[in-house]
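re: ur question from earlier - yeah i can do the single chain one, its not a big deal. heres the input i used so u can compare w yours
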Amino acid sequence: MTEHHLTFDVPAVAASLDEVQDRFGAWWDSLGIDDVRLRFSFETALAEVAANIVEHTRRRDQVAGRRYAVELCATEDELVAVLTDNGMPADVDLSAVTMADADEESGRGLALAIAALDRLEHEHTGGHNIWTLACSR
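and the output i got, formated as tokens:
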């Protein structure tokens, strides 16, 4: 298998989440990987981090025109997604993330992503939040 890349840019609004999942589905189908568990893990984490970007942009940063880029890459060894947004710095400590209580309405996204992935990283560099998601194959 050679490297398979897909990069696209979407507005940081709720409607973009469907586009992210649709593009992920088409990208995944092009890979020819027959591993339902791997797809579910990677797609769940991607959806949760994208939703986190959209939600925090909506709540904390009302500047019009906020966007995020999604880069998907598959190699022989791993699947990687890099999501980069131009929003306010996300104040997040991934080592402190825990699953929300059952009666809470939110707070599960990053915990689910961490559980689904082999690696989740966040940094704020050059005015961008950069999220790196990786699953070993």
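The two ends are 12 Å apart (CA to CA). not sure if urs matches, ping me
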